[in-house]
Amino acid sequence: MREIEIGSLVYRKSYEKDVLFRVCDIKNCDGRKIIILKGVDVRLIADAEEDDLDIIDVHEDEQHKVM
Fold it and tell me: Are 13 and 54 spatial neighbours (Cβ–Cβ below 8 Å)?
């Protein structure tokens, strides 16, 4: 699995991948990584733990749009 970094596109597993987010910040809170997310298609700011996120491969997503 790729490393989550600022700018990565992600979905939250716990919300059944309902909203596409871009990672805008990564914070450490009591030894846990908390990822701050900004909605891509909706005006929304959220946070999630790293293990709740699925990283989207932009190249793979673009290939699906072309087909």
Answer: yes
